[in-house]
Amino acid sequence: MRLRRRCADEQIVAEVMQETYLAVWRAAGAFAGSAAGGTAVGWVWTIAARRLVDAFRRRAHHAQPPPAAAPRPVAPAAEEEALAATVGSDVGDALRRLAPELRQVLQALVLDGLSVRETAVLLGLPEGTVKTRARRARIAMREALS
């Protein structure tokens, strides 16, 4: 579900899921688990997000760019509900009040742990735009929480 919100092309999502499952299967013994402070879900999502970025890069070399992810009205995802329950109500409220384009960048950079370059590819934005939106989002969060 999380990948579908990042990419509207079902074929790319299916390919990324298959690549992710294969990568997880091959590297399951290397997962450090709680010793490194990470969770299995976070580890799998990191693999999936990076595979999605790789898929976008592969498609970018073709004549036509990948279809843009069109924002679809969806019910709150389970991860957002879990985040709201985990994160203090003030932080959760501040996140919800952010403009969608700022929240997307902040989620990709902070919550998903992607680099600026990966976020730019994932969201189809120039790197400078990602940096600017990240800065604006952090300023807005700081003001909302002060």
Please, could you describe this protein's structure?
With 146 residues, this protein is an all-alpha fold. It has two domains: 69 residues, no CATH class; 71 residues, Winged helix-like DNA-binding domain superfamily/Winged helix DNA-binding domain (Arc Repressor Mutant, subunit A), CATH 1.10.10.10. It is built from eight helices and no strands. Belongs to the sigma-70 factor family. ECF subfamily. This is RNA polymerase sigma24 factor. Keywords: Membrane, Sigma factor, Transcription, Transcription regulation, Transmembrane, Transmembrane helix.
What structural keywords apply?
mainly alpha, membrane, Arc Repressor Mutant, subunit A, globular
Spell out the blueprint of helices and strands:
Layout: H1 2-6, H2 10-27, H3 40-60, H4 78-86, H5 89-97, H6 100-111, H7 116-123, H8 127-145
Helix pairs in contact: 2-3, 3-7, 5-8, 6-8, 7-8
Short characterization:
This protein has 146 residues and is mainly α. The chain is built from eight helices and no strands.
Total number of helices? 8
CATH class categorisation of the largest domain: Mainly Alpha
Q: What is the molecular shape?
A: globular
* Second rung of CATH, namely the architecture of the largest domain: Orthogonal Bundle
- Helix-strand sequence: HHHHHHHH
* Secondary structure: number of strands: 0
How many domains? Answer: 2
Main structural class: mainly alpha
What's the CATH H-level superfamily name of the largest domain? Winged helix-like DNA-binding domain superfamily/Winged helix DNA-binding domain
- Low-confidence stretches are none
Q: Mean pLDDT, nearest integer?
A: 76
Proportion in helices: 55-70%
What's the gyration radius in Å? 16 Å
CATH topology of the largest domain: Arc Repressor Mutant, subunit A
The major β-sheet equals: none
